[in-house]
Design goal:
single chain, about 220 residues, alpha+beta, Glutaredoxin, four-stranded mixed beta sheet, 9 helices, about 50% helix
Length: about 220
């Protein structure tokens, strides 16, 4: 059972700038390590935008953005981000919100679709999360995306062509539309074999149980 049609699909709706999506990725990966049939699981990342109207602004901190758009005080925004940083550290992630750049994620999602076409989507997602949360890189910047592409072995000339065009914009929009049809209201949102869903960065044990249940049914179908 190593061909694609014999693999069970797990779809993950996610946004690059969603702190719980990166935490959820780690918790799901921990479940996958414990899952005996992990080689028969195919991950498909789906685009979602928490703030589609967000304007990329390198002069503003993520604390200021939260404060302005959510109606929190600056101190409350920082406290919230500190809390999330603590949660991230519990799964081995380092969040540097003081360095995070306010950036629209649409082009980053186009990048992941290009990576998907080249069999590197999972690597692309990891690089984007790391760039945004840990390294303080502008994930809306073409040079940044091309550099990340180079790091995972993508054809940077082809990637540059993609980014400078409208390519994969429709795929991103289709994912967002599909999210509404499936009932996704927040991310991360994991869908197992189009049958079971887990919403949020849940504990690894729940992911493992859902993997086991859905895969057992998948094998019987």
């Amino acid at each position: 059972m190593d061909s694609t049609q014999n693999k069970m699909t797990v779809e993950i709706w996610s946004d690059v700038m969603c702190p719980f999506c990166y935490i959820g990725k780690r918790k799901f990966e921990a479940a996958l390590v414990e899952f005996p049939n992990r080689d028969n699981i195919q991950l498909v990342w789906k685009s979602f935008q928490l703030a589609p109207e967000m304007k990329t602004d390198t002069t503003k901190s993520i604390h200021e953005y939260l404060s302005e758009h959510k109606g929190f005080s600056l101190q409350e925004a920082k406290q919230m981000n500190d809390h999330v940083t603590q949660l991230a550290s519990e799964v081995g992630l380092i969040y540097n919100f003081d360095k995070s750049i306010v950036a629209n994620s649409f082009n980053a999602h186009r990048f992941t679709h290009f990576a998907k076409q080249n069999g590197k989507q999972n690597e692309a997602e990891e690089k984007l999360f790391q760039a945004y949360f840990t390294e303080g890189k502008n994930i809306d910047n073409y040079s940044t995306l091309i550099q990340l592409g180079a790091e995972i072995g993508l054809d940077t000339t082809a990637l540059k062509t993609v980014l400078e065009s409208e390519m994969y914009a429709d795929e991103v929009k289709q994912d967002v539309y599909e999210a509404k049809q499936v009932g996704v209201r927040g991310v991360p949102f994991f869908v197992f074999n189009r049958k079971y869903a887990v919403s949020g960065a849940q504990e690894s044990q729940l992911f493992l149980q859902t993997l086991e249940k859905s895969f057992t049914e998948f094998q019987k179908s």
